[in-house]
Design a protein that fits this description.
Elements: H1 5-17, H2 19-29, H3 51-62, H4 67-81, H5 83-90, H6 106-132, H7 137-150, H8 160-187, H9 191-221, H10 223-236, H11 253-263, H12 269-282, H13 293-315, E1 322-324, E2 330-332
Antiparallel strand pairs: 1-2
Helix pairs in contact: 2-6, 4-6, 4-7, 4-8, 4-11, 5-6, 6-9, 8-9, 8-10, 8-12, 9-10, 10-13, 12-13
Bound molecules: fe (ii) ion (2 copies).
């Protein structure tokens, strides 16, 4: 059931009707450039006389990070580095486009502002990994090359409702993931990586707040279509943006990376359930009244979904060692 002219018109109307609201929120949901952190704030200053000492310190701390956590960090970095794919996708969402590339309309400003904040994530992680000397950078770079070349279809059909449900979920997922890496890095004694992943998680938290807020507004204006979109997106399941990552010698790379993420506790099936629960709660799904039978069915499905996923999560066991070319073919697990 894709977007038809009949289903698109009211959705476009809703998107345009919250444009001013979005415009009024941009300055709090995104940070002004002048007040924003930049990757170099967290990295050795190579113009300084003691640059070698600074690099040595970074490498010394990075040596304490386990191979498993390095694999997760590489996967997270590769995901961030495919940002061109995500900006292209965002600009395909009906009504959320930037028609001229420099439009001052709120949705266009949001799209560019979000992208410019996100751009620092891959940049910072990439430089940290390069300086750490822990990973096979050529292999990692080849994976990024493949991923952008392969593309990504989040199954949102250019529908802005499906799109914002997707991003609400996805930003919370990346927030959780970066925050957990930050915690594990601290535990391993790498204060730099702790700060790096912490500051990125902070951005993801703001972006999550933004997309959830946009979708909350849409729920208020158009509850029936919103609840159907939410249920549809959950039935399709949220596909992670790096699903098409590949590398010459690594089959099923995404699947294998996500197993390591699950095993290290960085991003797990329980997190998936928790995100659903959070969104159901935030959008007040249970409290919606006056729904048609079909919409009430979607409501019931959504309200029970987190528990269903939690039960499945308890049955998942991840084991078995695995090799990754990112860490020179060494075995993890
Ligand atoms: Fe990000
Ligand atoms: Fe993000």
């Amino acid at each position: 059931m894709g977007l038809t002219e009949k289903t698109l018109a009211p959705k476009m109307e809703a998107i345009y009707s919250i444009e001013d609201f979005v415009g009024g929120q941009i300055d709090t949901l995104l940070r002004p450039v002048g007040e924003s952190w930049q990757p170099s704030d967290f990295l050795p200053d190579l113009t300084k006389e003691d640059w070698e000492g600074q690099v040595q310190d970074l490498r010394g701390a990075a040596a304490g990070i386990s191979d498993e956590l390095m694999v997760v960090l590489v996967g997270d970095m590769v995901t961030e580095e495919a940002l061109p794919t995500y900006q292209t996708w965002l600009n395909r969402l009906q009504g959320v486009t930037d028609p001229s590339g420099v439009s001052e309309r709120p949705w266009a400003r949001w799209s560019r502002g979000w992208t410019s904040e996100e751009n620092r994530h891959g940049d910072l992680l990439n430089k940290y990994l390069y300086l750490s000397g822990r990973v096979d950078m050529r292999s990692v770079e080849t994976t990024i090359h493949h991923l952008i070349n392969n593309g990504f279809d989040p199954q949102t059909e250019n529908d802005p409702y499906l799109g914002f449900i997707y991003t609400s979920f996805q930003e919370r997922a990346t927030k959780i993931s970066h925050r957990n890496v930050a915690t594990l890095a601290k535990r391993s004694g790498d204060e730099t990586l702790h700060r790096i992943c912490g500051v990125i998680a902070g951005d993801e938290a703001r972006h999550e707040k933004a997309y959830k807020l946009f979708m909350k507004k849409i729920f208020e204006i158009d509850p029936v279509a919103s609840i159907h979109a939410f249920a549809l997106m959950m039935r399709k399941k949220i596909v992670m943006p790096a699903i098409l990552m590949q590398n010459g010698n690594d089959d099923n790379l995404y699947l294998r990376f996500s197993k390591v993420a699950q095993r290290t506790g960085v991003y797990t099936a329980k997190d998936y359930a928790e995100i659903i629960e959070d969104l159901v709660e935030y959008w007040g799904v249970a409290a919606l009244t006056g729904l048609s039978d079909l919409a009430a069915e979607a409501q019931e499905y959504l309200c029970k979904l987190a528990t269903r996923y939690r039960t499945i999560a308890e049955r998942i066991s991840i084991n078995g060692p695995d090799r990754f070319s990112w860490i020179f073919g060494r075995e993890v697990g």
